[in-house]
Amino acid sequence: MSEGKPDTNTKAATLRVNLNNALSEHIELASPALRAVFDGSESGAGVTAALDENSVAISEAIDSVYPGSKDAFLELWRNHIGFFVDYTKAAKASDTAAMDKARADLDGYSDQASTFFSEANPNLPKEAVKDGLKEHLSQVIQIVDAYGAKDYAKSYSL
């Protein structure tokens, strides 16, 4: 570090950039994957495989901060993706009971993931993490609902 100038060439800065990139990629992959599920498109297999590779990369980034957490985090992460797939399939079928179950599963995920992070880092209050997760979960459900209503502009803008 030069005198008086901050050094951005640190492990923390590198992690933040890498995690931001991986999470951005997650959204770029999850959106077409859910659209493929809704449409019943076979093209979803490739996107789904890339989404899982991305999930592994995210779990490795998390593990670099909380060593030994990779497998537990990856299971939680994959579960939440599966719950969105369940919701999407239920929305396509207009199966409100299955949609409600998927929403409940996603609520359970927000509780489990917020517990995971608050236990890994006592500086992360569980409720603050949970609130952020619930916002994300709600947004994705709105995306699926807008897509199902054929309001593609709204779905893409969300």
What structural class should be given to the helix and strand makeup? mainly alpha
Report the biggest beta sheet as strand number plus sense, adding barrel if it closes: none
Tally the helices: 6
Could you give the count of β-strands?
Answer: 0
**Residue windows where pLDDT falls under 50 for at least 5 positions:** none
- Average predicted local confidence, pLDDT: 92
Please write the string of helix (H) and strand (E) elements.
HHHHHH
Q: Please give the alpha-carbon distance between the first and last residues.
A: 40 Å
Give the C-alpha Rg: 17 Å
Share in helix: over 70%
In percent, how much strand structure appears in the residues?
under 5%
Query: Tell me, what's the shape?
Result: globular
Descriptive account of the structure:
It is a single chain. The protein is an all-alpha fold. It contains 6 helices and no strands. Helix 1 packs parallel to helix 3 (70-92). The chain is globular and about 60 Å long.
Quick description:
This protein has 158 residues and is mainly α. It has helices at residues 11-39, 44-65, 70-92, 96-120, 126-148, 152-157.
